[in-house]
Design a protein that fits this description.
The protein contains seven helices and no strands. By secondary structure, it is an all-alpha fold. It folds into two domains: 76 residues; 88 residues, no CATH class. The longest helix has 23 residues. The relative contact order is 0.08.
């Protein structure tokens, strides 16, 4: 990657990586229960930033040029009267997408509070990948299981942090006489 290939997205990714890394480093000075949230947010953030930087580093200049050429060809092949100004990033045309994303976010938070991480994470991933990502059932299910397993191994085993089991889940397990969580 040359300096010419560095774009705003890459710079933003580096800044976010620095924020997440600092957050995780500082959290180790906190008591065990107080470092929970910085680790839950920071560790996956670091992983995703590193993945994005890897994608940015290995993107060849020809791929960037090909994308630009593809946009020019699409613009040139559009009928004469149909060329519109480029829409702003946010506005009335993105309202539906924003409502959908906020619905996923609020549903996930409610799911974690009610049913806990180990139930909410796979359901959220499976639902999101199937509906928004249009992934196959096999891929979506495999990724949901893998992410839940990684969550359990990272926080439950490696860091020894108990993730919130959910109020409904805790009550149901207690009501069924299966033990207390």
């Amino acid at each position: 990657m040359t300096l010419k290939n560095i774009n705003f997205s890459t710079v933003l990714t580096v800044i976010m990586l620095a924020i997440f890394a600092s957050m995780v480093a500082i959290s180790f000075g906190y008591p065990a229960k107080a470092r929970f949230m910085p680790l839950v947010v920071g560790l996956p953030g670091i992983v995703f930033c590193l993945i994005q930087l890897g994608l940015d580093l290995f993107r060849s200049p020809t791929e960037s040029a090909a994308a630009s050429v593809g946009q020019q060809i699409a613009a040139a092949s559009a009928p004469e009267g149909s060329q519109h100004e480029e829409l702003p990033e946010f506005g009335p045309h993105t309202a539906r997408q924003e409502v959908v994303m906020w619905s996923y976010f609020v549903s996930f938070i409610a799911g974690v509070i009610l049913f806990g991480f180990y139930i909410s994470v796979p359901i959220m991933l499976l639902t999101f990948l199937r509906r928004q990502g249009e992934a196959s059932w096999k891929f979506a299910l495999a990724l949901a299981i893998a992410a839940t397993l990684a969550l359990y191994l990272m926080f439950g085993r490696l860091l020894g942090i108990e993730l919130h089991p959910g109020f409904v889940t805790r009550w149901a397990i207690h009501a069924l006489g299966l033990g207390a969580i």
